[in-house]
Amino acid sequence: MSSASRDSVTVVLDWGTTSFRAFLVDREGSIVEAKESAQGIQSVPKGEHARVLSHALAAWRNEHGPLAIVAAGMIGSRNGWLEMPYVPTPAKAADFAAASRMIDLPEGDRVMFLPGLTDPTAFPFPDVMRGEETQLVGFGLEENIVVVLPGTHSKWAEIRNGRIERFRTFVTGEIFATLANHSFLSKVATAKANHATDAFAEGVALARDDSGKAGGLLTRLFAVRTGWLAGKIAPEEMKSRLSGLIVGWEFAEARAGGWFKDGDTIAVVGDDDMVEVYEAVARAFGVRLAAAPADAAIRGALAISGRGRR
């Protein structure tokens, strides 16, 4: 079948460390269908990625013919299918396109691997991201603004003059998961974090406390335990309070690092419930919020690949 058969739809692939997600997108950029599984790259032996992908997309191929696939994220990492380079900041959409790589598969599919992004100005070592750069491009690079991308490793990025100017990573989600499940708290806490509770808001308030009485983060973290010992925090509230403290501390650190000040407008970009959580914390820190599309990653992948609305 000719390459013309690949014009009607595009598959946007988000193949991460622990999960596989694929989106079938039409000419207008709308999602027609999605597939998701727990078959992340860490569970796929080296050299087996093409076979796994072919099997996962077989039904779409049977219906639409050979597929045009745009692959972003950890599938292009050292532990993935094909290690892609990092484009240095400042970077625009065309820079990602220029550093991409195309491979053809036996069934006629064609995969475009997108590069990651590195900020060589970060101290002490260059910072990196894979996948979030598509969200930034999909959000749009026209407005000068700071964009927050919640996640296991949250990113704060500055967009300026049509480019991604700089970014920094905060290991917020990973720190919370480690403390909630593998620390002294895990032996006492009896419920999952609930971001709509007073306990979460109290954790955010503790992160915002700049009176000097609360100490640094390490001292404040232990207060989740001492609050329980003092009978002030119930076991079912501990993870919610911990989550509020850690997410709040991300904002406190970002503010101290000059990423925002009271009254600034920022955007929170993502496609899960953590977007609402981060927006609530942003408001608590006196920040205004710009609108952001939930499908920014797909928009960005299509824009970089040149397969956007056509």
TrEMBL record:
Residue ranges the record marks as coiled coil? none
Q: Give the transmembrane region(s).
A: none
Q: Which Pfam families match?
A: DGOK
Tell me where on the tree of life, at the top rank, the source sits. Bacteria
Q: Which InterPro entries match?
A: ATPase_NBD, DGOK, DGOK_C, DGOK_N
Name of protein: 2-dehydro-3-deoxygalactonokinase
